TrEMBL record:
This is peptidylprolyl isomerase. Keywords: Calcium, Endoplasmic reticulum, Glycoprotein, Isomerase, Metal-binding, Repeat, Rotamase, Signal. It comes from Formicarius rufipectus. SUPFAM superfamilies: EF-hand, FKBP-like. Pfam families: EF-hand_5, FKBP_C.
Amino acid sequence: AGAGRRRRPGLRGQCHAGGRSAMGRVLTLVLLPLALLAAPAQAEGGAPAAEQVRIEVLHLPETCSPKSKKGDLLNAHYDGFLASDGSKFYCSRMHNEGHPKWFVLGVGQVIKGLDIAMMNMCPGEKRKVTIPPSLAYGQQGYAQGKIPPNATLIFEIELYAVNKGPRSVEAFNQIDKDSDKKLSEHEISQYLKEEFARDGKKRHPSAHDEILADIFKKNDHDGDGFISAKEYNVYQHDEL
């Protein structure tokens, strides 16, 4: 998908609550999905030219760095519209007290079209993107989100931050204290304790054990008691 010409109009989607959030720490494993929309992404697959994401750049900062890539942790606001009649079906400023959303790019936490549309995007950039049904909610639609079957979607996106993602090689090595290229229960337990101490939030005493168990349930696919680099899903652009 190609980017459109550079210009600077404001986004049309104006919601009542708003404002940028402070860049707080995010639990680095991000194993509870921070989905833009609470519905699964479509399966990957080649799409014909008519079924590609169309991208128009509304604003590009003078300094465009870093550019987003698969595995990065992004912070953004976005509005979603139905292309058929222009009606708005989602506004991120109406949720979470108006704070921008955090999510990991390229891992299916959002619909496939948004994973594509937000690649190579820099902090401060604004885009308008058009996503065909095959890269959105397809023939089934998404009733809970008021999206009908075979709907083409338009999103207006403002990106605030591009951070190293939780599944980067840096994050893996930070947890892998003994450098054996696999994460033990003890290593992840210690890491969780450190993260909890840093953010200072009050949690029920059982939270640590519940999160640890959930991490291994979702990531230790071979059941050997360790999470390998492959299971952790360190991305192809990184090397251990």
